[in-house]
Amino acid sequence: MSSRGRTETEKLKQNLEDQLDRLVAQLADLEECRDDLDADEYEETKQETLEQLKEFSESLAKMKGGDMTLVNELNRMQLAIQGAISEAFKTPEVIRMFAKKQPGQLRQRLAEMQRDVKVGKLSEDVYNQQAVEILAALRKLGEKLSPIEIDFLTSHSSAALSAFEKVSDSSASGEKVLAMAGSQIESAKK
Description:
Blueprint: H1 6-32, H2 39-66, H3 71-86, H4 92-99, H5 103-118, H6 124-140, H7 147-156, H8 159-166, H9 174-189
């Protein structure tokens, strides 16, 4: 009885994470099936998914304004959505691990990719793009990067990823996150 909403907060958080997982999986499925769809069908489905992400983002913003117990979790999810919308992250798997705060799995994925590029299973370009996404996600999650990783991130980072990283983790940054995500959504519509 004295949970003071903890149970409800956990249920709400789980529901939000499930919805985010569903939307990210929808993006991943869309990318996997891209060759099976004609260009118009692909674009229409992608726009519908981005619209759903926008609606989800707006719901998070409303919740964030009224429920302070979820602010940190909502900020993390908001950043994940922003990354998906702004296309700073192009790899749904990285978005999912970032949203679920899984630095161990991100490090493991990076190690697997390093192995795959050495044996020729993964191209250098794909490796560079995904490694930058993983390192940026790790940095955003507060993980310590080695000097080599920092150099790699600096030299291979895209403009979209740099803008994503500039958003600070302070509690005052919530409005910055919402403003940046909103502007990215608007530009994605055009």
